[in-house]
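INSTRUCTION: Work out how this chain folds

Token vocabulary: learned, describes local backbone geometry

RECORD BEGINS BELOW THIS LINE
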Amino acid sequence: MAVDYTVIVVYLVGMLAVGWWGMRRAKSKSEFLVAGRRLGPTMYSGTMAAIVLGGASTIGGVGLGYQYGLSGAWMVFSIGLGLLALSVFFSARIARLKVYTVSEMLDLRYGGRAGVISGVVMWAYTLMLAVTSTIAYATIFDVLFDMNRTVAIILGGSIVVAYSTLGGMWSITLTDMVQFVVKTIGVLLLLLPIAVVKAGGFSEMKAQLPTEYFDPLGIGGETIFTYVLIYTFGMLIGQDIWQRVFTAGSDRTAKWGGTVAGTYCLVYALAGAVIGTAAKVLYPKLDSADDAFATIVKDELPMGVRGLVLAAALAAVMSTSSGALIACATVANNDIWSRLRGAVTTDSDATASDEERDEVRGNRAFILIMGVAVICTAIALNNVVEALTVAYNLLVGGLLVPILGGLLWKRGTAQGALAAVAVGGLAVIGLMASYGILANEPIYYGLLSSLAVYVIVSLATPATDPAVLAAWRERLAGRGSEPVSDSVPAHQ
């Protein structure tokens, strides 16, 4: 596997080199956290697709295809639907707000009283998302180098922490573009056709497998509904996704660039399911469905191609991991630490004060600290699915209602938002303890309780100050104060 090792090593060294180059561009808070808010359509589409299609979408998507056939595409398909909905209905308004975090949006909408609590919930979500991505390094490096799990997590995690800390969002954007190209070539253009050919083509796959493997709804209606509820709605409100929306150079870029990325996700979902179905024909008795990706890559691909496809899997993991890491650090610094020390700034008041406190150095330090925390947590945890489920249940159960309510219902109040976050979050935690982490009931009942409390408390409390709503409408319309860097032409 000398050629494969060379491909992987060159790829990893390239990621660090791009991170070093990105450090030269990240000279301000806006450049470091949101790439100066000036990405053009090409870079925006590529990086958005890269962050949402991580290890779970690649290795997990193939595993679901191995277990359920074509209907295994529904998990990743739900992610694509969520990205399409975000892009078409909300992304332009979100981009015009000129904020850095979801909690800052809640403060603008409700009058500055929802930030810390929502920030803690969002921080827990982004932390667990980064942890689950980091755990996936163990699977890939085990296939490559037969490496110890802990060493693999430290190696993969350290590379991501290094380039993310160096250049912030610029480094992550540039590495994500490389990762997007590698994933497209490795998974869609190489692994997909080779897997189908090795399995004997679609006619042989249909002859070898039960008919339910080719039923689009074979995975079950309740499972599909849960995927849509968790992942589609999760795409609408996650800090890791919003932080990419904030990088768009224009409303048009945010809307159409995101639509292209969402469509790409739908194609990627089907590709993963087909690869998994082919793996079922080739290896009908694997111990674990999640081994399908690594097994078919290791045994069926020729030298060199195998290294590129494994680099594609590594790219998928790294893109999600780095996006979740910078989101986690941004929330920790801007929504929790800065608020606790009473030094919150937004684009409208962030010029000289940013330079005085050296915002870039502070955010860089938080990425490093959060990166170490993510690596240590990943080493301690084993079950990726449970960790990811906890993250999305907390996110959707606690924050979906106050965020969408703030965007869609002008009668929603700060008290209603805080009550929805608290009740929804606590209900999800309690129900997971009662029904089990992987049960569907926690997200169903947690979301309903959050919605009920939000509506009842909002109607029972005084309406939001008209001045707050007026300022909110101004920002939504793009007439609020903009950062100086926003005037720079967009990058394609």
About this structure: Residues 23 and 167 are 4 Å apart (CA to CA).
